[in-house]
Design goal:
The protein is mostly helical. Helices cover about 70% and strands about 0% of the residues. The protein is built from 13 helices and no strands.
């Protein structure tokens, strides 16, 4: 079991993806956790600052830091050695990381999502590109597969709705109509079920968080054991 910065950071800041990564093969797991830790770092920027300029500068720092990979003068950060290994192992395109960073600019603006189309665009740019990168670690290049976008939107709907329901400051601005989020999430989950196909199965661990999203719609509080059970069930079924 990996025990580096990414392991601890993902466990602390993104428990659902962390638990899902436990079902990945040992050779892929540390790289997957590196991606999840990177995503959590970006997400925390919008949560930690109320100043758009500061948030923009922090996002720009990450963009510049990624550009130093392979130059021999990589910027110091606890995550970077592990993330660089993941990028090399999966031959991950930096353009997808850049797209993730670009999507997170909305997080630091303080603005409210204009409509559901804008919400879907943000979800695909952030969670969708994370899923595209994750799938590549399993040897699956499915950047244009509709299941990627659908899974990202479903996860974002449920995540933002849970944050809003929990009273997290600023959570409501991510949802054009918070009350519509659960029904829209259910619709996306049904759509994902119809889009899933066998060629995606090698990358199933990357899609496993969807199983926890479905569980979250049914229960307000979900124990880690129940989450692990849901993940194990998805693995046995061969679909999220």
């Amino acid at each position: 079991m990996p025990d580096g910065h990414a392991f601890a950071f993902a466990q602390a800041h993104d428990e659902e993806r962390f638990l899902s990564a436990l079902f990945a093969p040992a050779r892929v797991r540390p790289h997957l956790l590196s991606l999840y830790a990177f995503n959590a770092e970006l997400a925390r920027i919008g949560q930690a600052t109320r100043e758009p300029l500061i948030g923009t500068m922090r996002l720009a720092w990450w963009r510049g830091t990624l550009e130093t990979i392979g130059t021999g003068v990589m910027r110091p950060h606890p995550l970077m050695p592990e993330l660089a290994k993941a990028i090399g192992a999966g031959r991950l395109p930096l353009a997808l990381f850049d797209a993730m960073i670009a999507a997170r600019h909305f997080d630091v603006t303080g603005e409210t999502q204009a409509d559901w189309e804008a919400f879907a665009h943000h979800a695909d740019g952030s969670a969708g590109n994370l899923l595209r990168l994750s799938a590549r670690l399993f040897g699956i290049e499915a950047d244009d597969h509709p299941a990627i976008r659908t899974a990202a939107i479903a996860g974002a709907l449920i995540g933002c709705w849970r944050n809003h329901r929990a009273g997290i400051p600023g959570a409501a601005r991510f949802l054009p109509e918070p009350g519509d989020a659960p029904a829209r999430a259910q619709e996306q989950l049904r759509l994902l079920a119809s889009q899933w196909e066998g060629r995606l199965r090698p990358a199933l661990p990357a899609f496993l968080p969807v199983s926890l999203h479905r569980l979250a719609l049914m229960r307000r509080e979900v124990s880690s054991w129940r989450r692990l059970g849901a993940l194990a069930g998805a693995v046995l079924r061969g679909r999220p």
